[in-house]
Write a structure and sequence with these properties.
heterodimer, A: alpha/beta, four-stranded antiparallel sheet, 10 strands, 23% strand, globular, B: mainly alpha, two-stranded antiparallel sheet, 2 strands
């Protein structure tokens, strides 16, 4: 009972994601240095930065793929710094991968079904799902939401790149996500597919916040309300999309200030 | 006329097949029914020697290899200790049950000794699995091989429980309801029932959440963790299930030979199980049984064949080794892979000749 009351009170306190002094070292190399940031529930934020700025490392620390060398990470008020990834996922955190991380030997339907099963009970169930299995229906709906119904019985290895990217997103939206980390979801997509992606992102329920890593400014700045600019493993600048876009230092660093 | 007739005949079973395919893919496969019927009426066809030395042995070895197929095919974990788990289970039946070595055996009735052996062997395999899941790929092979080798040398040297290199002899087999269940025909049916149970259990599990998740772990463990699965717990649970299957085979093994000695759990025998599974194919549960049949046929008849050719009879392992090499080189999914590709090419040929109107 205590923990429920605690959790409710901290939700009131207002941070979906709270990083305090997060540092990650790979040997002598500091991939992340003293990252402190707070993201409100439902907030949509872009993380920008050149290659090697530490964006994906930041995601890996938040999901627990590897632990930060120092600092704390709170998810809806709860200190998850030393939680294994699956514990964070079960609390409503989700992520997608820059390079699609799917199950190529299984069908589209099975991929999405696994994602639904992973965040509910019965992960070890020895009984096959029946005709009216609730999770099967949930999986059907998700497959439909990312426009993959036509290929749902195909093995993932046979899908086109764009379809795999869509499936990648579907896996992150299973269950009841509260916060999603999108790692370059538009990588390798055609202009049409990009438009579909923007539509999927903007039509997410308002309570679902996310952080998106995206190189394509057209995509990134259209689907977020705040921007964090990273450089060499540090936070370089934070602000509204317009501010960041027009900031001379940012332009110098990232948006190709070479024009001037 | 005949074409139209064929189409009408096949139309309704095809739709039925599609509906049933989601639950039991084998039910609508006529070849599977033929095999099932042959297996059930086998005692009418085969004499005692064939029934036990060939078919019961095949089913027992096949069940052991099935436990490896489950781990390797669905879980991506190559465990070389499946025979060791079966051997442990066999030893426990001999130790807790009744045997000629009265100073070792506790003399429990079989219906107590067998559950005890199954429980202990499953625990043993689960513990080994808990060690092995901390590693991946070749290191899993090394750890499980080390467990197998350690057990072999331990049984050789321990006299208090395992009776050293002589092993435990004249193990009692169950007799109840006035039936000697080790007599050829009853024993064949026990073996067939256990093998079929394990086969269908693996087949069924492959589409249940546990089995699907295991295949997810095989394909991408990191993503499974990012979907909320505790990957290591899942792997250990897979070892527990596979250990239970291997333990069942071990009970049948000790009833079959009525004795168990370190020779049955040697490192060579551990590797035989791997060879059986790979030669048969580890993508589907039927593979290990096909591999076991090939292995048993070669083991039994290659000797005579080689002697007739003027070669040393013990060279049957050479044949098995060459077969293994050929499979690894040309068909990584084993004999069933060869069979599937042959069927597909037949279908393609049939389509081509049908479409081209070459045969009037």
């Amino acid at each position: 009972m205590d923990s429920v009351a605690q959790r409710l009170s901290v939700v009131g306190a207002g941070a979906a994601l709270e990083l305090r002094g997060v540092t990650r070292l790979f040997g002598a190399l500091a991939a992340l240095t003293d990252i402190t940031m707070t993201v409100r529930p439902g907030e949509r934020r872009a993380v920008l930065g050149s290659n090697g700025a530490g964006k994906t490392t930041l995601f890996n620390c938040i999901t627990g793929d590897f632990a930060p060398s120092s600092g704390t990470i709170r998810f809806f008020g709860e200190d998850v710094t030393h939680f294994p990834p699956y514990e964070r996922i079960r609390r409503g955190l989700r992520r997608t991968y820059q390079i699609s991380a799917l199950f190529p030997g299984l069908t589209v339907q099975d991929n999405v079904y696994l994602a639904c099963r992973g965040v509910s009970r019965g992960r070890f169930s020895f009984l096959r799902p029946g005709q009216n299995d609730a999770l099967m229906h949930a999986a059907d709906n998700l497959v439909q939401a990312v426009h993959l119904s036509a290929v749902k019985d195909q093995r993932v290895a046979e899908l086109a790149h764009g379809q795999q990217r869509q499936l990648e997103i579907a896996l992150a939206l299973a269950g009841a996500p509260r916060f999603v980390l999108f790692d370059e979801p538009a990588a390798g997509l055609s202009p049409t597919e990009r438009a579909e992606l923007i539509e999927i992102l903007t039509s997410l329920p308002a309570h679902i916040g996310y952080i998106i890593i995206e190189h394509d400014m057209d995509v990134a700045l259209r689907v977020v309300e705040s921007v964090t600019m990273m450089h060499n493993g540090r936070i370089f600048k934070e602000g509204l999309p317009e501010e960041i876009q027009s900031d001379p230092e940012v332009q110098e660093l990232y948006l190709g200030g070479g024009h001037e | 006329m005949s074409l139209a007739h064929d189409a009408r005949v096949t139309a309704s079973p095809a739709t039925m097949a599609q509906r049933a395919a989601r639950t039991w893919p084998e039910i609508n496969n006529p070849a599977a029914w033929v095999v099932a019927v042959i297996l059930v009426i086998m005692p009418l066809i085969a004499s005692g020697f064939f029934l036990i030395e060939i078919f019961a042995s095949t089913l027992i070895l096949g069940t052991m290899a099935l436990s490896l197929m489950f781990l390797a095919g669905y879980g991506g974990m190559v465990s070389l200790m499946q025979l060791t788990i079966a051997g442990f289970s066999a030893y426990m039946v001999a130790v807790f049950g009744i045997s000629g070595n009265a100073n070792i055996s506790l003399g429990w009735p079989w219906w107590l000794a067998v559950p005890m052996a199954l429980a202990l062997a499953t625990a043993f395999g689960t513990l080994g699995g808990a060690l092995a899941v901390r590693t991946e790929g070749i290191y899993t092979i090394m750890i499980t091989l080390a467990i197998g080798a350690a057990f072999y040398y331990f049984t050789n040297q321990n006299w208090a429980i395992f009776n050293g290199h002589t092993g435990i002899n004249t193990v009692a087999t169950p007799r109840f309801w006035g039936v000697n269940w080790r007599a050829d025909i009853p024993f064949y049916y026990i073996v067939l029932a256990v093998a079929a149970l394990c086969y269908f259990a693996v087949q069924y599990l492959s589409r249940a959440p546990f089995g699907l998740a295991l295949q997810g772990v095989r394909d991408n463990p990191r993503r499974m963790a990012a979907l909320g699965f505790n990957v290591n717990a899942h792997r250990i649970a897979a070892y527990a299930f596979a250990s239970f299957v291997a333990a069942l085979a071990g009970v049948l093994q000790v009833w079959n030979y009525r004795q168990i000695s370190p020779g049955s759990v040697s490192v060579g025998a551990c590797i035989d199980v791997l060879i059986i599974a790979v030669v048969g194919g580890i993508t589907r549960p039927i593979g290990p049984f096909i591999g076991a049949l090939i292995f048993v046929l070669l083991r039994t008849f290659a000797l005579d064949f080689l002697v007739r050719l003027g070669l040393d009879g013990n060279r049957f392992r050479l044949l098995i080794g060459l077969g293994f090499l050929a499979i690894v080189f040309w068909s990584s999914d084993g004999v069933i892979g060869l069979w599937q590709r042959w069927r597909q090419s037949q279908k393609r040929d049939a389509n081509r000749s049908g479409g081209g109107h070459r045969h009037g």
